Amino acid sequence: MKALLKRRKRSGNSLDNGYSSITPTGDRPGPVLDSIVSGCAPPPRLNTAVYRPSQSCYLDSPITINMSSQAVRRNDTADILIVDDLPDNIRFLSNFLGEQGYQVRKALNGEMALRASQALPPDLILLDVNMPDLSGYEVCQELKKNSATAEIPVIFLSAGNEAIDKVKAFQSGGIDYITKPFQLEEVLVRIKTQLTIRQLQKNLEQQNQQLKQTLEELKIAQANLVQREKMSTLRDVVAGVAHEINNPLSFILCNIQPASDYVYQLLQIVEVYQQEYPEAPPAIAKLIEDLDLEFLSSDVQNILRSMKNGANRIHSVVLALRLFTRLDESDIKQVNIYESIESCLSILQHRLFSRIDNIMIQIEKNYGDVIPLTCHAAQLNLAIFNLINNAIDALEEKLKRAYDESFQPRLGIKVETEPDNILMICIEDNGIGIPREFQSRMFEPFFTTKTTGHGVGLNLVTSQRIIEELHRGQLSFQSQNGMTQFTIRLSLPTH
């Protein structure tokens, strides 16, 4: 049976609590609830939505608020905080909601409500408007300022039925407004509705978070696919280039020395001829003069030496490319980390001589003892290559912006063994540095601070995946005052 709670009028400046009360005859005053039907049967029991209070209008024991963050909450019930300055009102709603299976906490004023909410945020708050010290509006505003309590649904309970009261309630952050007197069934339905809405919001937030996580995983997967495709293409290209270059290069290298010997022998013949016939015939003398035989004799040897040096350089580049991609080798193998670094530097040799102001980038190497490292050789080479290449990019960008002629671009590479058998590879540059606002995004897929045409933001992501996922290592960086340092840490095999 539905029952309508009648208003109780308080004298003077007292507030209307929304419940009816009469003073019975006799010497002992005390509040009671009027029957919904005047002059009819006695008030029904609580489960019929009518409550008969005890002889005293105040609670027999003080209200206890659990302020411990370790409080245990049943998972299958909602936690509701009732805030009202009249204990009688709190007891009434608390008993009713408790019978409905809800966990109920209580607060007699706004300060107690704020402390209770911060200690253990409830699922919903029933908040009286008219309270001393802090009004319900003020309490709600304070709750919304705190990120830990901002999402708690607040239902206002008030005797005020004016439109301005309701507007103020919603402006302060409330999600519903119930006017006293009210039907308990209405309160129950509104509570269930708001709890359902809140649960749906939580579910939506979880789904959004899952979608964000899935999106990030898709981005990483896409980056990995691009990286694998790039690596596969690179290996194919390098294999083709190495094969095409090796054949003619081998021919050149094999013939340069015999050609040098032949030229030397011919020059010896010319020298002996000049000694035996110092007075050459006019035609030969004129030809010697025109050709500048003395210069030709010395320069042809220089040319042959240059050709040999160039061929050796091409040979070293081919070897570096083969070493970089680890062609015809197993995926996991034991390598000399210094050979890997040197192969990267050899491939990037053309970039070490900056095209800007013809400045040579200074390389500072600090290598420790040679320690064998078991790794995915080609992948690790790619990670190191990317870091060195990015450092050169930063140095070139600094050269573009620098007005100080004394600026010397520097690339430092340090390798050492740390405690706990950790191999550390540090790559440092004194380039433009990484702005603080971008540092948190450096390992995001497709994020880049470079101009269009200078990369798509996958190099660092690729290097991070290779180091951390493939090798169970760590890739970190720090950048300040124009100095940027990327550090690789890998576990060495224990013996």
Task: Give the secondary structure arrangement, pairings included.
Blueprint: E1 79-83, H1 87-99, E2 103-107, H2 110-119, E3 124-128, H3 136-145, E4 154-158, H4 163-171, E5 176-179, H5 184-276, H6 282-291, H7 293-325, E6 332-336, H8 337-347, H9 349-352, E7 362-367, E8 372-376, H10 377-401, E9 410-418, E10 422-429, H11 436-439, H12 459-470, E11 474-480, E12 483-491
Helix pairs in contact: 2-3, 5-7, 7-8, 8-10, 10-12
Describe this structure in words.
Helix content is 47%, strand content 15%. The strands form three sheets. Strands 2-1-3-4-5 form a five-stranded parallel beta sheet, with helices on both faces. The chain folds into three domains: 1-67 and 74-182, 3-Layer(aba) Sandwich (Rossmann fold); 221-328; 331-495, 2-Layer Sandwich (Heat Shock Protein 90). Helix 7 crosses helix 8 (337-347) and helix 10 (377-401) runs antiparallel to helix 12 (459-470). The chain has 495 residues and is α/β, with parallel strands linked by helices. The chain has helices at residues 87-99, 110-119, 136-145, 163-171, 184-276, 282-291, 293-325, 337-347, 349-352, 377-401, 436-439, 459-470; strands at residues 79-83, 103-107, 124-128, 154-158, 176-179, 332-336, 362-367, 372-376, 410-418, 422-429, 474-480, 483-491.
